[in-house]
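One record is given unchanged without comment:
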Amino acid sequence: MQGKPRGTPQPIAPGSSRALHVIAILGTLQILAWGSTFYLLAVLAPSIVRDTGWSYQWVMTGVCIGLFVAGVVSPPVGRAINAYGGRPVLAAGAAVLAIGQVVIGSSQNFVWYLAGWTVLGVGMGAGLYDAAFSSLGVIYGKNARSAITAVTLFGGFASTVCWPISAYLVEHFGWRATCFVYAGIYLGVALPLYLTLPARGAAVAADASARTQTLRLQGEEPSILAVLAAVLTIAAAILATMGAHLVTLLQARGLDLAEAVALGMIIGPAAVGARFVEMLAGKRYHPIWTMIASSSLVALGMGLFFVGRSVFALAIALYAAGNGIGSIAKGTLPLALFGPERYPILMGRLGLPILVAMALAPFAGAVAYQHAGATGTFVMVAGLAGTNVVLVGALWLLSRRLIDAS
């Protein structure tokens, strides 16, 4: 029997110790990636405003620019992961994130600050969920679902872990030093850990002929992809809008700040709890049902905000649970519908509208709140959630042949 060619990646079973190593690294570094980018200004912004004199609104545009740039670079990042595997791309992303943190931390004027967020956005495109999911896809192929679920379970703790760290660093060393510390962690911890990952799994590497640098769609696939992109983009817009404005909206509905913050703390445990349930039971059903459950829970939660204060806690728990498993469906459903060969390119393509929506939605929410108040903003978000329920139903109908074949 002819032996395997030298350099062929060894098989990695999803439940093996090697797989646990991969999941632990990607999951832990997703906490860092989200906590030091998307969630960074929640802690640093007040200090930046006091130190520089820039307005709070302008300081907060940094993360919007970062997300927008991340969306723009997402398609080429997906192609790069498809061609070279996740290891070099994630490692390069860590280096770029470090550079971005240094630029932000050393900024002496607003243009330099925004330039730092532009660099950070490139690193976000190569370091957040889309890149991590794509990397798992090229390692595990069609068996990546459990690994994707486990990584999102880690990622749900990003704000829980990084907000206290950022707060401690800001209080004792200042916001600039906080950025420099995160840069050091990226270079000294994240980059070396990424380099220990396998570039690609044996099964995926063996089928190199099936890989392509273009997203070739046929039959009903273009329609399926269009509806899937719409579903994920709307879900991202809802997440970003509620994440930015929930406390303000709750206060406008009669709660004081402490009550609003306390209710907001339900989001993390509810999202992680729902992801844990999905991790235990997800293998028993197709990811389309995860997406159906996600959109339904978000819509139900948003609807309950119109009932009254007595059910706000339940509304937030249902909304957060839906978003929690929605992040899993975002990674697992495209893999199930389109297969592992096109998965990295597909995730890169989907990342563009998703991240751009996350960049623009907080501003749209602010405009809605300014002109229509809390009720009008809730109506807008609830309308988006209801639209997504309809779109997910359409996605199920369009995908039935693919679902039955999987």
Confidence is low (pLDDT under 50) at residues 1-11, 205-210.
